[in-house]
Design goal:
Layout: E1 9-14, H1 20-32, E2 36-41, H2 51-58, E3 62-63, H3 71-74, H4 76-83, E4 86-92, H5 94-101, H6 108-115, E5 119-124, H7 128-132, H8 134-146, E6 149-150, E7 154-157, E8 163-167, H9 171-181, E9 191-196, E10 201-202, E11 208-209, H10 216-227, E12 231-236, E13 248-251, H11 255-265, E14 271-274, E15 281-283, E16 302-304, H12 308-315, E17 321-328, H13 332-342, E18 347-352, E19 364-365, E20 367-371, E21 374-377, E22 381-382, H14 383-397
Parallel strand pairs: 1-2, 1-4, 2-3, 4-5, 5-6, 9-12, 9-14, 12-13, 14-17, 17-18
Antiparallel strand pairs: 7-8, 10-11, 15-16, 18-20, 19-22, 20-21
Length: 398
């Protein structure tokens, strides 16, 4: 499911904004993802980017007029709209937004929007004062009421040298909403809680105990759950990763912090996925000030941290699904089955961390999935694809 754009018919409507040049990169990315991209340009858009640019990047004809040179072109608004899996309008100017909101169909793009029954996504891009004008606000409200998806613009410096809200949204965010629209919504209405990353157990203000977890697997699980329609909360230890689009992230540091954050929310959650690598122990004492190296004790006194997954298993409510992850370097199946039973899990994903091309810090993973009545060996693949495969199995538990 990772490459959700492959084989999909995507219509990209480009309007007259300086941000049109950014969308050329979007077309290139979608084409590399094997999407079939057809670009419709308004007359104003052609003042910023040539149709030939989009034809070269998409490999398809760029449409610019209601009245083309062939019979197919003369009915392009019907054929394109009917065949589309989704319509993306980016950048969308205030003028285009106003026309769409009021059902005006005076060019190829607006008529295609009226014809299509696919999802319509609109990415505004304009001066911040234009974006906040009551007329634009009203028109965007109308579009949302119609059922169009209007994605919030970014905040920052614009071509007019003013700073504010109105910059074209970033592609990474837009792509996630498009991916969600093209993905079966198996978890619509479900609340999903995911933990990710390491914890840090401070020795003093400068030092801490931790582990090699990057958080990549947990973040991939959160991204996949969002695409499938879930309401996702991600409780994350310290990582360098950006929060996945559409996900509510709660940042914690220590094992106790994570324990408190998870238990506070677990009772109202349908599915809990614990991918985080929580420290088993913490220093018995934390120094208030940095300890000088000549004063450091050669022996470290440790105190055991609470076992979050074990506690969740004890508290699991009827119908709640509890998923665990385990990092092992030997006897994966036996070690995983012990944890599955001891912690009252529905499923455990066991990582083999003995190699160098999967597990901690790697972009790839290879896991063994264990259920109470069976097992599945997943292939060595990207962590995002691994997450998609795991969610395919969780669907069967729901």
């Amino acid at each position: 499911m990772t490459n959700v754009f492959a084989g999909k018919n995507i219509i990209l409507g480009v309007t007259g904004s300086i941000a049109a040049f950014k969308v050329a990169g979007w077309v290139s990315t979608l084409a590399k993802e094997e999407a079939n991209v057809s670009v419709i340009m308004t007359d104003s858009a052609r003042r910023f980017v040539t149709p030939l640019t989009f034809e070269a990047l998409s490999g398809n004809k760029t449409y610019c007029s209601m009245f083309g040179s062939s019979d197919r072109d003369s009915m392009a608004h019907i054929s394109l709209g009917r065949e589309a899996d989704l319509l993306l309008i980016a950048p969308a100017t205030a003028n285009t937004i106003a026309r769409l909101a009021n059902g005006i169909a005076d060019d190829l793009l607006t008529t295609t929007a009226l014809v299509t029954r696919a999802g319509v996504f609109i990415c505004p891009a304009m001066n911040s004062k234009m974006y906040s004008h009551p007329a634009t606000v009203t028109n965007i409200r109308k579009l949302k009421k119609i059922g169009y998806h209007v994605l919030d613009p970014a905040h920052g410096m614009m071509a007019c040298k003013e700073e504010g809200e109105g910059r074209l949204a970033e592609w990474d965010d837009v792509a996630e909403y498009l991916a969600k629209a093209l993905t079966e919504q198996e978890f619509i209405g479900k609340k999903v809680l995911i933990t990710a990353g390491p914890t840090r157990e401070p020795l003093d203000p400068a030092r801490f105990l931790s582990n090699r977890s990057s958080g990549k697997m947990g973040y991939a699980m959160a991204r996949s759950a969002f695409r499938r329609g879930a309401d996702v909360t991600l409780i994350s230890g310290p990582t360098a990763l950006s929060c996945p689009t559409g996900v509510n992230r709660i940042e914690v540091e220590s094992a106790q912090d994570m324990f408190d954050a998870v238990l506070k929310r677990s009772g109202k959650t349908d599915i809990i996925v614990k991918t985080s690598a929580v420290a088993d122990y913490r220093p018995a004492k934390r120094a208030e000030h940095k300890v000088k190296k000549e004063q450091i004790e050669p022996h470290l006194c440790l105190k055991q941290n609470p076992d979050i997954l074990y506690e969740l298993g004890k508290r699991k409510t009827e119908g709640q699904i509890l998923i665990g992850f385990a990092a092992e370097s030997q006897d994966l199946r036996a070690a995983g089955m012990r944890k599955l039973k001891k912690k009252n899990l529905d499923l455990i994903a066991v990582n083999d961390i003995s190699g160098t091309n999967s597990g901690f810090e790697s972009e790839n993973n290879q896991v063994l999935l264990l259920f109470s009545d069976g097992s599945v060996d997943l292939p060595h693949t990207s962590k995002q694809h691994t997450a998609d495969l795991i969610w395919d199995k969780i669907v069967l538990l729901s």
